[in-house]
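Lecture notes, part 5. Sequence design as translation. It can be helpful to think of inverse folding as translation between two languages: the language of shapes and the language of residues. The source text, in structure tokens, appears below.
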């Protein structure tokens, strides 16, 4: 190999390294891609939705960097989230990234009573919207089938869930789904500690969230530094087992804003 070939090879290597560094910097400071693997946020987010997390929304903590390597104590350029935000956060104990809706702020009290949210002593408005219907079939890469309020449902049949419009005190309104009466429909009254937040999935009977303590396999309260960012738009969506299955792309969800 001549000097010219060696020089061309080194330039190619440098270009790749610079591109990777820029991509890493962009991911750390601005937007992180996130793929929806489960149905815990239906109907707001579907399995196979692809979105970007705005990491500038709440400032930066050590979890903002890949592998949590940022030497940051607390949070830099901190900005308070709002009730109703759809937030990606790092689980306080198992290191997994979750996406849920922010329901309660530091100092709030929150309780579930017969599947209804009681926030600071007031039950949130809960308007019936009818039925959310989807096909009972394997979904996403994991191939899990959805839970249905009209079970049992044959493969390919209509899987139904009751849908409601829930509204927070700040006016943020969104759809929640109800499948059955389960243990998380009735909880003790929780008081959110300072510096922590309380999250729930919109698909209430299919969500591991703050209603269950970490020691019992849930999420519990989430510290502020664990918040990675906010999302407000679906960029891409695929209903198949792979995002490369073009025939399963949901074109109507491309660049769809989120409530």
């Amino acid at each position: 190999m001549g000097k010219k070939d060696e020089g061309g090879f080194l330039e190619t290597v440098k270009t790749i390294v610079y591109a990777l560094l820029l991509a890493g910097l962009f991911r750390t400071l601005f937007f992180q891609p996130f793929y929806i693997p489960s149905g815990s946020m239906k109907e707001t987010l579907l399995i196979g939705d692809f979105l970007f997390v705005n990491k500038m929304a709440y400032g930066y903590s050590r979890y903002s960097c890949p592998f949590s390597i940022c030497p940051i104590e607390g949070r830099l350029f901190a900005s308070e989230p709002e009730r109703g935000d759809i937030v990606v956060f790092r689980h306080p104990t198992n290191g997994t990234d979750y996406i849920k809706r922010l329901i309660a702020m530091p100092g709030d009290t929150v309780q579930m009573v017969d599947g209804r949210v009681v926030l600071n002593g007031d039950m949130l408005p809960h308007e019936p919207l009818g039925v959310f219907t989807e096909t009972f079939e394997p979904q996403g890469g994991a191939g899990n089938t959805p839970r249905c309020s009209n079970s049992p449902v044959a493969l390919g049949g209509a899987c139904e869930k009751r849908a409601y419009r829930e509204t927070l005190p700040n006016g943020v309104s969104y759809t929640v789904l109800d499948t059955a009466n389960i243990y998380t429909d009735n909880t003790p009254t929780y008081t959110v500690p300072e510096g922590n937040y309380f999250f729930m999935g919109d698909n209430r009977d299919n969500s591991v969230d703050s209603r269950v303590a970490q020691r019992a396999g849930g999420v519990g309260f989430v510290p502020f530094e664990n918040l990675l960012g906010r999302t407000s738009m679906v960029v891409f969506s695929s209903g198949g087992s792979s995002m490369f299955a073009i025939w399963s792309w949901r074109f109507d969800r491309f660049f769809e804003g989120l409530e």
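The translated text above is only one of many valid answers, since several sequences can fold into similar shapes. The mean pLDDT is 88.
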